[in-house]
Design a protein that fits this description.
This protein has 15 helices and twelve strands. By secondary structure, the protein is α/β, with parallel strands linked by helices. The chain has two domains: 269 residues, Rossmann fold (3-Layer(aba) Sandwich); 64 residues, Roll (Ubiquitin-like (UB roll)). The longest helix is centred in the middle third of the chain and has 32 residues.
Length: 357
């Protein structure tokens, strides 16, 4: 899973990046050409249990990649401040984490969460508008020259342009995410988005809830969007502590867990991703998969040869395996199933793929 952290300059994005990546320095500078990258291993008790059982040579978790994207100038209204050199890195991302400042700043003053959020959203919309207008201009010329097969794409882009001209993100236009004609554009305002409120340590629970409600009112009715918050400064400091000290610190704050794991979990839900496992002596590994995809697609996620030569999948649900105590016992209890290529993989499935190439 690849997530990009966006937000206005001064929103504390780099601190958020450190909090979410466990203390990694983003390395991003003030120039638009510089981006920071952090990779986080997803903690999963199920993977740990399988590793203890199989004692493999290698254990491989799912990872989340965070891209720290240089801040958007607050006065920007051009749709170009993201930079042409950066856009190719942003477009392949699975989702965006939109950091919004909710702390006082000596440079920017009191937080203006609604204004700051909308400026960031406008930048995504204007960037998409530039892409749409350029492509429409090209298509209109091609269609007028007789290339009628491009008419459908042209009409879809014109419809997308209407949304953008009204200041609406393309996540409100289903075809931007579903149509094969438009998917390749990877429009920024169509990407799933987690709005992450970067909260100052002096803000209390009531203030945080009020701010979240304010943002929730703005995004009401929009699909593929979610809200969360964190004390970024505090959590970035927690990453410097040992696991034991960090847990004690969180307990003192009356927090069950840090934002690092919570944001990953919420991002999985936002993107509708599940996790399945392959397990054996050589390697126990967790794999990310879109919910609803088939055993054939899961096989291809592991290796293209498995998809090409797929025969069947031997499946045991994780909870059934754990309850049985062993794979042999799960088989004896009738919990192991042979499934075909069209089987819809479930979260927590342990799968052994049978294939021949």
């Amino acid at each position: 899973m690849k997530l990009g952290i966006i937000g206005l300059a001064g929103s504390g994005k780099s601190t958020v990046f450190r909090a979410l990546t466990g203390g990694v320095d983003s390395g991003a500078g003030h120039e638009h050409q510089e981006l920071g990258l952090g990779v986080v291993k997803v903690q999963d008790d199920r993977l740990d249990f399988l590793a203890d059982y199989h004692k493999p040579k290698k254990v491989t978790p799912v990872v989340v990649e965070y891209l720290d994207i240089p801040g958007i100038p607050s006065e920007s209204s051009s749709g170009r401040s993201l930079g042409e050199k950066i856009l190719p890195f942003i477009r392949p991302l699975d989702a965006l984490v939109h950091c919004v400042r909710f702390f006082d700043s000596s440079a920017a003053g009191e937080p203006q969460i609604e204004k700051d959020f909308l400026v960031g959203e406008e930048e995504l919309i204007l960037s998409d508008m530039a892409v749409v207008e350029k492509r429409i201009e090209r298509l209109e010329k091609d269609v007028s020259r007789g290339r009628k097969e491009l008419t459908e794409e042209l009409e879809l882009l014109r419809e997308a342009g209407k949304y953008l001209e009204q200041g609406k993100p393309l996540r409100l236009f289903p075809a931007a995410m579903e149509s094969e004609k438009l998917k390749g554009f990877a429009f920024l305002s169509a990407k799933p988005e987690l709005i992450l409120l970067n909260v100052g340590e002096n803000k209390n629970v009531n203030e945080i809830e009020s701010a979240l409600e304010q943002l929730n009112t703005i995004i009401s009715g929009q699909p593929h969007i979610a809200l969360d918050w964190l004390y970024a400064d505090m959590e970035a400091e927690i990453t410097r502590l040992s696991e034991e000290d960090a847990q004690e610190f969180l307990r003192d704050l009356k927090m069950e867990e840090g934002a690092k794991n919570r944001v990953i979990r919420k991002s999985f839900r936002l993107l509708d991703f599940i996790v399945f496992f392959t397990a054996g002596a050589p390697e126990v590994r967790a794999w990310q998969l879109k919910n609803g995809q088939t055993a054939l697609k899961a096989a291809g996620t592991v290796h293209s040869d498995m998809e090409r030569g797929f025969i069947r999948a031997e499946v045991v649900a994780y909870h059934d395996f754990k309850q049985a105590g062993s794979m042999a016992a799960a088989h004896k209890a009738g919990k192991a199933r042979l499934e075909g290529r069209d089987y819809g993989v479930k979260d927590g499935d342990i799968i052994l793929f049978r294939f021949n190439v």
